Amino acid sequence: MLEHGGRLRGAVARYGIDEADWLDLSSGIAPWPWPIPPIPVSAWARLPETDDGLESAARLYYGAADLLPVAGSQAAIQALPRLRQAGKVGVLSPCYAEHAEAWRSNGFLVREVLEHEVERFIDVLDVLVVVNPNNPTGLSLTPGRLLEWHARLAQRGGWLVVDEAFMDNTPHLSLAAETQRPGVIVLRSFGKFFGLAGVRLGFVLAESRFLKVLARQIGPWSVSGPTRILGRVCLDDFEGHRLQRARTEAASERLLALLTRYGFAPQGGCALFQWLITPQAAELHEFCARRGILLRIFLNNALHNNSLRFGLPRDEADWQRLDQALSEFSRERA
Does the model's pTM come out above 0.85? Predict the structure, then answer.
């Protein structure tokens, strides 16, 4: 399996620090999870129903005409390659590694391309996969540019797959409203913005006939009844959305300023994380881990230098803890 953030128990075993004593900044997940609403016993006792309002709430929240709930966007990432014949796939990289892995393991020829290389290769691709905003670099592309790429792919029946897992703070950049165009497929993650990654909920936004094919591939009851209720309540909470956007954006700006203060100005980021390229990535990762602070490290990737991703601290105690670790690291190497 590929490496991901959030592997806290592995860090517990490696460093001998109790799980409760860790500050886990390794995942780009909002550290303020939504309150869990009361779940009626019937949601646990009956098979999930599809007329409970989840799809309606999601269509309104995302601004899409048609969508399909799935057990996390990861389920869609693995299913999409099974809906095409083998061909050539471009993945705008570096990005979430499961995209390239899913297409490659299903027999596709995968080329990981940098942003400036897309124009060179797009006319020979059958599928282009873009994470927007990108994880881990934070790169955001405009809808206009993405639709230009889609138009060229569509001439040959190609797909533009856009993973918008970190889009909730910047809905004006979303292609959700364009998903009635054949070959525009948007993936949305629920757990990151709502701070509830453990419920495993996501959505595929696309034209209805495509979603019917995808639904047959994924199968019935892919999202549990309790998850459907939780998802609908969260998606309907418009005041909660406003507050979450405000505090994630403020925290991300504070994190940017904190890292910059100690000479680690990030090269990218979004409302849920900051991304830092540094030759000291491995050293800083280890230094923080020995103090119970878990970061996400990216090493030996041909598409970028060694780097770290910092998630958002939850409260003032967490901010002070990170500040102290960065201060100690800087002093020791001064």
Answer: yes
